[in-house]
Amino acid sequence: MKRQIEIFTAGCPVCDPVVQLVKDTICENCEVTIYNLSEQCESKICIKKMEEYGVKRLPAITVNGELIGCCKNIEITKEDLIKAGIGSA
């Protein structure tokens, strides 16, 4: 059974090396789909999947429909911004 890998990218210099790393690592049992969110695919399936998987930062990778550990729970919050001094006079 093929392993389904989805890569969410912004098509930028930060994301491109990760996309290449995945491509260099896959085997014949891997099927890769790349969603460039800066282009927002015509069908908008990329946006729907991004929301479904809880993608909060890019690049992000799913394997068989699950966001892999290194891509989870990384979200910028208002609390983080305030702690950094943003919004303080």
Tell me what you see in this structure.
- The relative contact order is 0.20.
- By secondary structure, this protein is α+β, with helices and mostly antiparallel strands.
- The protein has one domain: Glutaredoxin (3-Layer(aba) Sandwich).
- The chain contains three helices and four strands.
Provide a brief overview of the structure.
By secondary structure, this protein is of the alpha+beta class. It has helices spanning 16-25, 45-53, 78-83, and strands spanning 3-9, 30-36, 60-63, 66-67.
**Helical stretch count?**
3
Q: For the record, what is the CATH homologous superfamily label?
A: Glutaredoxin
Mean pLDDT: 87
Structural class call reads: alpha+beta
Q: Any idea what the CATH architecture is?
A: 3-Layer(aba) Sandwich
Q: Report the sheet with the most strands, covering strand number, pairing sense and barrel closure.
A: 4 strands, mixed
Overall domain count? 1
**Distance from first to last alpha carbon:** 57 Å
From the spread of the alpha carbons, the general shape counts as elongated
Q: What are the segments in which pLDDT stays under 50 over at least 5 consecutive residues?
A: none
The CATH class, by name, is: Alpha Beta
- Percent of residues in beta strands: 15-25%
Instruction: Please trace the helix and strand order, writing H or E for each element.
Output: EHEHEEH
User: How many strand segments?
Assistant: 4
